[in-house]
Each structure stands twice: as C-alpha cells, then as structure tokens.
Amino acid sequence: MNALLNAVEAAHPDSFDQTDDADAAIVSQPLPTPGALKKAIALEPAIKEQIAHQRQTIRNILNGHDSRLLVVMGPCSIHDRDSALDYARRLKELANEVADSMVLVMRVYVEKPRTTVGWKGLVYDPHLDGSDNMAEGLASTRRLMRDIAALGLPIACELLQPMLSAYMDDLISWAAVGARTTESQIHREMVSALPMPAGFKNGTDGGIQVAIDAMGASRHGHRYPGFDDNGHPALLHSRGNPDTHLVLRGGHQGPNHDAQSVEKAAFALGAAGVSGAIMVDCSHANSGKDPTRQPLVLDEVIRQRLNGVSSLVGVMLESHLETGKQPMGAALRYGVSVTDGCLGWTDSEHHIRCVAKRLTERSV
Ligand SMILES: O=C[C@H](O)[C@H](O)COP(=O)(O)O
Ligand SMILES: C=C(OP(=O)(O)O)C(=O)O
C-alpha cells in the first residue's frame, strides 16, 4: 500500500502540500486512484463471472423470474476482518442449506451514514481510533470483499460517498442507497451508472415517494461530473439502471411492513410505472432498533408472502455473531456490532431455517 501511495505522491507532489491559507478548512491527503487499487487488489476471472451470475440471480428475483426469497443479512457495519470472515463462512454454509427457497447475500457495509456524528465505517477509519487512514481502509475493504466473494457469497453494500463506489463496485452484487440519501440527486446519478441491482430505502420520515422518484430518476442515463478510474475529473455519462427497487425500513412514525403499508407501497409503485418489487428491512424503524424484534418483522413479511403478496421479494436483517451492540472503546467484544444492534448468529440461523421450512412446505 505504501508503494502505491509513494507513486501517487511522486505523480502529484502538490497535493501533499498543506494549504497556506490560514482560513481554509481543509488539508488534502492523497488516495490511490480506483484504477490503481483495482489493479493492486485484482479479481480473478472466475470471481468476476461468479459476481455477474449473482447479479443476474438477484435481477431474476426482482423481475419475478426466480421465486426464491432474496435475503440481505449481515452486520450493521463491518469493523474487523476476522469476525466478518467468520460470519461469512457460517453464512455460506447456511446459504447452501437453504438454496432451494432463498438466496442469501451478505451485508458487507463499510460506510455508515450518521444521524449527526460517529464512526463512519471501515473505509474511513479502519483502526477505529479516529486516525482515519482511508487509503488503508479502502485496501482492507477490497481485500475483505474479495475474500468473501471467494467463499462464493454475493455481497451487499450501502454506497454512501459516490466517489468511493468506484473502488468497490466490481465486487458488489446488490447495492443500497440509505434512508438519508435516497432523495439526493447525486446518489441517483451514481445508481444510474451502477452495474448491479440497487435498493432505495424510504426516507427516515417514512415517506416512500422519495424512493419511487429515485427509481424513476436512476433508470435514466445522466451526465454528471465525477472522476474516471485514473482519478481525473471527468464528465461521466451513465446508461441508466433498470434494476432498482423499494426497501421499506419504517420511519419516524413507526414501522411500514404491515399488510396495509405494503399494499399502499405496491399501489404507488404500480402507479409510478417502476418496479413493483419490495424488500422489507426487518431492522431500523421496522424493529424500533431492537434487534430481538427483527424475527417478528420477518415472520409478518413471510406471512404476507405466503398469503400471496408477490411484491414482497426480499428481506433484510442486521445480524452478527453475537446479539446486541457495544460502544466503541478499547476492549471490544468479538462479533458484537459497534453501530446498530444486531441479531446474534444462533438466532439468525434458526429464523432463516424456519423461513426456509415454511417456504418449502408451501411450494410442495
Ligand atoms: O444502520 C445504521 C444506523 O441506523 C445509521 O447509520 C444511523 O446511525 P446513528 O443514528 O447511530 O448515527
Ligand atoms: C443505515 C442503514 O439503514 P437506513 O438507511 O435505513 O437507516 C443500514 O441499513 O445500515
């Protein structure tokens, strides 16, 4: 990594100078370009093919050509490599076991949107100590995602800072735009260029129209300023992304996974002429941020699906090795979330198996 940074410094010596404007609020530090990092931590052709296949499987579920349930599950945020890989190995085994009725995709969330301030994720601060070594965070993220993909798991990730998506977009099979950014034109432009399906969450106030508008905006091509793979400012031309959908995550007024809210959302999607596929996030405002309530939300979604609500194609769970969450601090407990509380592995596995059984019994 240092060699990469030295090469960047040699090519752009000015960018290392601190500004001499005493009023300026920023100091710049160089980062590798997306192209350089992708070359340094490259994907084997077999992994690229696997990811293309996994994206297509997810598209098929969204389009109704594959009747399995899409399940995006994993930690609220990734904060250490060992527990992420430990989780991934367990998830892969479970994914194989339930493959007839479900497609499990691992949440590998490395950027966190904060309500005010807080730790912003592995990419920003891989040492969790405020040192913000983003060059290292980007490299660790790529290595981790590559290793998880090598286990055969599809990866889900929220894309928050549009500039960072280019460092990892080749590794992701399903992308999320979060409740705090769905309304942003910049994020809609970003999604219009993504090579994978993407879910737009409803807003934090519970409003679904922002997500429907986002789907309408991102299926069109856009021209917008950004950076090319070599890090040069460029006018980017996107083709538009036809594979977007709504994610219901509840809002300030409470949950929105009940039958009436789902029916209302399906009607609004139909009226707008966008994809009718809906994923329910069993966490966040749908569980009142109490991880132990996620199975109740899951149960209700499966009940509706088994009653014929075909728009419900997916669910999301925040799940880690251990239940709950912990504050950031010196001695972190292994496998416990440092952001939102998660359902522990034993419960997660149990509930996924129960759902698989219910789905399988119904289809025979
Ligand atoms: O899923 C994550 C959180 O809900 C989101 O990042 C906001 O977190 P915060 O309110 O703790 O900042
Ligand atoms: C931040 C997340 O969700 P939301 O945008 O719904 O708050 C998340 O899923 O990690």
UniProtKB/TrEMBL annotation:
PANTHER family: PHOSPHO-2-DEHYDRO-3-DEOXYHEPTONATE ALDOLASE DAHP SYNTHETASE (PTHR21225), PHOSPHO-2-DEHYDRO-3-DEOXYHEPTONATE ALDOLASE, TYROSINE-INHIBITED (PTHR21225:SF12). Its EC number is 2.5.1.54. It is an enzyme of class 2 (transferase). InterPro entries: Aldolase_TIM, DAHP1/KDSA, DAHP_synth_1. GO terms for cellular component: cytoplasm. Stereospecific condensation of phosphoenolpyruvate (PEP) and D-erythrose-4-phosphate (E4P) giving rise to 3-deoxy-D-arabino-heptulosonate-7-phosphate (DAHP). Residues 56-350 form the DAHP synthetase I/KDSA domain. Pathway: Metabolic intermediate biosynthesis; chorismate biosynthesis; chorismate from D-erythrose 4-phosphate and phosphoenolpyruvate: step 1/7. GO terms for molecular function: 3-deoxy-7-phosphoheptulonate synthase activity. This is Phospho-2-dehydro-3-deoxyheptonate aldolase.
